[in-house]
Each structure stands twice: as structure tokens, then as C-alpha cells.
């Protein structure tokens, strides 16, 4: 009976090992679900990085004219735009150009009012789930922080549309994008050459629009990044100075011991 149990246990172990090996071989044989995003050079990279505010402002233009049709930013307020280099008056003027819900009017219908600097960016109907059958796009308030691959992947995704290779057909309603999960995405190509007109006269190519709006999304996710970097540099300088001071003090205190 003991020998039978031993043989049974051995057989089970061998079957389990075979399953693990086969699973490992299958996993190794499967191609990745999307192409890796190439690393881009960003001004905000590294411990001394900071945001190119001109690019951030252009990125807001792309968001406002293209992305905001579908994507919301419920954690960003119009007053926050002052951090992009705009004046408080300019941020207020942008806010006033938007209408937001303001309860129910005297006629019993939903009322609207001009937004103020304290109001959050309005969320479009599709992002609120009010369009039947439509895919709900993600909120972009923290997208650059939570999206796998971060800014590099966002930029790659925005510029990665194209015809599928021979023999590949995206599922109905989806678009081929080699950087998207499973290389298919519900979002149509959002950017194109001259899709916006930049106030500073920069040529609005697809790549420029993608770079600017990605920079804007990175700024939205970490608006105080440059300030944190400056604080970190000050702390490091202080610690180095303190270390040198302690070293000199130690040498002086113990100089008569030897």
C-alpha cells in the first residue's frame, strides 16, 4: 500500500512537472502582446529634470481641442493652469469659455454657468458613460503615472497607428496599433498633421502634437515635480556641507589624541 502511494505521488509530481514545463514553453513561444515603447528624451527626466512649459502649454491646446472630446480630467482645475506659465487672468479666461452644470433652472431643466478657476475640467458625456455602447475612455488626470510604460508608452501609442501587417486583421471596431495591448485599440487615431494651430507658431506635426500632449499629461500628473527636484538638490547640498563640517570638527576634536 505504501509503495502504491509512493508510485501515485511520483506520477502526480511528474504530471505536474510536465504541465509546468509545457506551460513555460508555451509562454516562451507566445509573442509579446505589444511592441516595447522606445525611450524618448524628456526634459522632465532625471533628478534635475523640469518641465518645458512652452511644450506644456502647447500640450494643453492639443488636449483642449482634441482629447477633451472624449477624455476627462476630474482632478484638474482651471486654476491649475497658472502653473503652466499662464497668468491667473489667462487661466480665468480659459475657465470662462467653458460651461458646466449648475443645478436645475427655474424652468425645470439643467442649468449651465461659466466655469471659474476653482472648477474642475468638465467631463465629456462619453467619459461619464452616457453614450450607450461606447467604450468609456480613461480619465487623464494621472494617466502618465498609472499607464504602464508612462510617457514613453503614451507617445508611442499616439504615433503607433498604421496599417496592420499582412495576415493581421484587428477585431471589428478596433484599430491596429503596435503599441496597444494586443495591438488593437478602440480609440481612432486622434492626431494628424495640422490638427491644431499652436499660438506660438510651432509646426503642428503628428509627432509634435504627441510630444506636447504627453508632456502636458506628465505635468498634470506631477505638477510639483520641478519644485521637488529643487528641494532634493538643496537637501543634498545641505547634507554634503554638514558631512564636511562634521568631518572637520572630528579632526579638530581628536587631533590631540595621537
UniProtKB/TrEMBL annotation:
InterPro entries: Cyt_c-like_dom, Cyt_c-like_dom_sf, Cyt_c1. Residues 54-221 form the Cytochrome c domain. The keyword Metal-binding applies. The keyword Transmembrane applies. Its cofactor is heme c. Pfam families: Cytochrom_C1. Residues 1-29 form the signal peptide. Heme c binds at residues 67, 70-71, 187. Keywords: Heme, Iron, Membrane, Metal-binding, Ribonucleoprotein, Ribosomal protein, Signal, Transmembrane, Transmembrane helix. It is found in: Membrane. The chain crosses the membrane at residues 231-249. Binds 1 heme c group covalently per subunit. SUPFAM superfamilies: Cytochrome c. One of its GO terms (molecular function) is metal ion binding. GO terms for cellular component: membrane; ribosome. This is Cytochrome c1. It comes from Acetobacter oeni. The lineage of its organism: Bacteria, Pseudomonadati, Pseudomonadota, Alphaproteobacteria, Acetobacterales.
Amino acid at each position: 500500500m505504501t509503495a502504491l502511494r509512493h508510485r501515485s505521488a511520483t506520477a502526480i509530481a511528474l504530471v505536474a512537472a510536465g504541465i509546468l514545463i509545457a506551460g513555460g514553453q508555451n509562454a516562451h513561444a507566445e509573442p509579446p502582446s505589444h511592441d516595447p515603447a522606445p525611450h524618448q528624451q524628456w526634459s522632465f527626466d532625471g533628478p534635475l529634470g523640469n518641465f518645458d512649459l512652452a511644450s506644456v502649454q502647447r500640450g494643453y491646446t492639443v488636449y483642449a481641442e482634441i482629447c477633451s472630446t472624449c477624455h476627462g480630467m476630474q482632478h484638474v482645475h482651471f486654476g491649475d493652469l497658472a502653473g503652466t506659465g499662464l497668468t491667473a487672468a489667462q487661466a480665468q479666461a480659459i475657465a470662462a469659455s467653458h460651461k458646466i452644470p449648475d443645478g436645475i433652472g427655474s424652468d425645470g431643466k439643467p442649468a449651465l454657468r461659466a466655469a471659474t478657476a476653482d472648477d474642475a475640467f468638465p467631463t465629456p458625456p462619453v467619459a461619464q458613460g452616457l453614450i450607450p455602447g461606447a467604450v468609456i475612455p480613461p480619465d487623464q488626470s494621472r494617466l502618465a503615472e498609472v499607464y504602464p510604460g508612462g510617457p514613453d508608452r503614451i507617445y508611442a501609442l499616439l504615433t503607433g497607428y498604421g496599417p496592420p501587417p499582412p495576415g493581421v486583421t484587428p477585431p471589428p471596431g478596433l484599430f491596429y496599433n503596435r503599441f496597444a495591448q494586443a495591438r488593437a485599440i478602440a480609440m481612432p487615431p486622434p492626431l494628424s498633421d495640422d490638427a491644431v494651430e499652436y499660438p506660438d507658431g510651432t509646426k503642428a506635426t503628428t509627432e509634435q502634437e504627441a510630444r506636447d500632449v504627453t508632456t502636458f499629461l506628465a505635468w498634470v500628473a506631477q505638477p510639483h515635480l520641478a519644485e521637488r527636484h529643487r528641494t532634493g538638490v538643496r537637501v543634498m547640498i545641505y547634507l554634503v556641507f554638514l558631512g564636511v563640517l562634521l568631518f572637520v570638527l572630528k579632526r579638530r576634536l581628536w587631533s590631540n589624541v595621537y
